[in-house]
Design goal:
The complex is a heterodimer of chains A (about 160) and B (about 160). With about 160 residues, chain A is α+β, with helices and mostly antiparallel strands. Chain A has one domain. Chain A has 4 helices and 5 strands. In chain A, the strands form 2 sheets. In chain A, strands 1-2-3 form a 3-stranded antiparallel beta sheet. A two-stranded antiparallel sheet of chain A has the order 4-5. In chain A, helix 2 runs antiparallel to helix 3 and helix 3 runs antiparallel to helix 4. The longest helix of chain A has about 45 residues. Chain B is mainly alpha-helical and about 160 residues long. Chain B has one domain. Helix content of chain B is about 55%, strand content about 10%. Chain B has 4 helices and 3 strands, in the order H-E-E-E-H-H-H. In chain B, strand 1 and strand 2 form a beta hairpin. In chain B, helix 2 runs antiparallel to helix 3 and helix 3 runs antiparallel to helix 4. Chain B is elongated, with a radius of gyration of 23 Å. The relative contact order of chain B is 0.13. The chains are: A alpha+beta (about 160), B mainly alpha (about 160).
Chain lengths: ~160, ~160
């Protein structure tokens, strides 16, 4: 009974470690990333779960994805500010004071947009790095080994076959 | 982490990576192998060594990049034109006063088209690199119409 249990445990681990697909990424019409695992569409959390054995890639991927979303939000906010400034100016009388207000608002919008774009670009770079690293390690690294994994999240022996 | 650092330094066949960055006008797609940036000729040789589909993807990516640069230059020209037109005072009273809308619309169109081709170039380059590294990411299609490049069974009579 115990032998069967260990055998099943072993097979389960084997299955989990072998089930690592290739992650590819494609940008859609809004320049947002769409991920695919072995040609099948997948959400970001699924991809992050897939990377569980490669922590540095996983960290890069998750934090990069979060940064991209924050940057996109700031970009949308900046666009809103710019549009609001324009509407405000078009509804005003067009005096010197109104022009000054419009210039101030559009300047704030542009500055926020630059910051948002920079954050988004950085996040995108990190996502790409994470995926590329993961694919490389999964595909080319010598996985047939037993090693000790020491990290805050996980501690213990890792069997890779 | 031990296993991670242990396994990171074994490389048999070339593994391509991409580095995409924005220029002043367009974007630059660098193909990196290990620590060196590949030249155009090297990439073409590598891509041609795998299969024609990978080479085709790479070629399409390059073509889209060329189109993108054409539209980016056009967009810059129309932007400069708009600024010159707006800032020059002598044009205001003459008949050319409704030239501003064509300039603005052309500028917006060039901007949108440039973005589309930029994204296409990036996506195709990624696909080419994935195709080189892992084979096709999608499942192969055998019974597509008019597909003759990879027959399932083939017999050649040589004289």
């Amino acid at each position: 009974m115990r032998k069967i249990f260990y055998l099943l445990l072993f097979f389960g681990m084997l299955n989990e470690l072998k089930a690592q697909g290739t992650v590819t990424l494609k940008e859609n019409i809004f320049n947002n990333n769409r991920f695919k695992i072995d040609g099948q569409e997948a959400k970001a959390p699924e991809v992050a779960r897939l990377m569980a054995n490669f922590e540095s890639s996983q960290k890069n991927f998750m934090e990069g994805h979060k940064q991209m979303r924050i940057g996109s939000g700031i970009l949308i906010l900046a666009t809103g500010v710019g549009v609001a400034g324009l509407i405000d100016y078009l509804n005003s009388n067009g005096t010197q004071e109104d022009v000054n207000t419009y210039l101030l608002i559009s300047g704030i919008g542009m500055g926020t947009g630059i910051i948002g774009g920079a954050i988004r670009g950085k996040g995108k770079k990190r996502v790409e790095t994470g995926i590329s690293e993961y694919n490389y390690l999964k595909d080319r690294s010598d996985l047939n080994q037993v090693s000790l994994q020491v990290s805050p999240a996980k501690f213990g022996l890792v069997f890779n076959f | 982490m031990v296993f991670f650092s242990n396994a990171a330094f074994c490389q048999e066949t070339p593994y391509l990576q991409l580095n995409i960055r924005d220029n002043f006008l367009t974007q630059k797609i660098d193909f990196i192998e290990g620590s060196k940036v590949l030249s155009k000729l090297e990439i073409q040789q590598l891509m041609a060594s795998v299969d024609p589909e990978t080479q085709d993807l790479y070629q399409r990516s390059m073509n889209q990049g060329k189109l993108n640069s054409v539209f980016a230059i056009g967009g810059l020209a129309t932007t400069v034109g708009t600024f010159v037109y707006v800032l020059s005072p002598q044009q205001q009273s003459t008949t050319g006063s409704n030239l501003i809308w064509p300039l603005v619309i052309t500028n917006a169109a060039f901007g949108i088209l440039s973005g589309v081709f930029k994204r296409n170039a990036r996506n195709l380059a990624r696909e080419a690199v994935d195709s080189y590294n892992f084979g096709r990411s999608d499942a192969p299609v055998y019974f597509e119409e008019n597909r003759i490049d990879q027959p399932l069974f083939s017999y050649i009579i040589r004289f």
